[in-house]
Automatic annotation (TrEMBL):
Keywords: Electron transport, Iron, Membrane, Metal-binding, Transmembrane, Transmembrane helix, Transport. Residues 89-140 form the Rubredoxin-like domain. Residues 42-75 are annotated as: Disordered. The keyword Transmembrane helix applies. GO terms for biological process: alkane catabolic process. Pfam families: Rubredoxin. The chain crosses the membrane at residues 167-186. GO terms for molecular function: electron transfer activity; iron ion binding. This is Rubredoxin-like domain-containing protein. It comes from Zea mays. PANTHER family: RUBREDOXIN, RUBREDOXIN-1-RELATED.
Amino acid sequence: MGMVSKQHPRTPLPSSCCLHLHHIVYLRLVASSHHLARHSVDVTKDDKPLEPPPPAAAETESTQQQEDEDGGLKLDPRRFEEKFAVLNTGVHECRSCGYRYDQAAGDPSYPVLPGIPFAQLPDDWRCPNCGVAQCFFERKSVEIAGFAQNQQFGMGGNSLTSGQKGLLIYGSLLIGFLFFISGYFLQ
């Protein structure tokens, strides 16, 4: 004779109990978000204007006139110097068909000699494949990792692209690994 257990359907909780549970969960979420907010850092400090907080009402009118004359609030000038170095490759690509005009090769179909920059092409020069005007070409450039103002530092390493830096780093690691492994083959 086996033991027979009666399964009772779960009785629903009273609505006041559910509200109490929801309130507890809400309070825990709010407490954890305040905990995270205490440990966060304001990274927008550099974007704030260099001017002090607004003075009294009489002085506010004169500052508003100065701001209108200057063209807006003054931001930290270091923000404008933070530009990545971009090198022109001398290649322009047609957005319509994908033809690439290379400054080093020129265009043999239209007598354009090698070495002529895209900006100095004749006005009647068109894409040899689809015939669109020069305005449909976009310049292809390479972005150098690092800011433009720092390119003279670093023994030439700052002028490398990210792909070249990756090749240099992982290539040197591979050569170092092969060097150490070659020690096992010495007798």
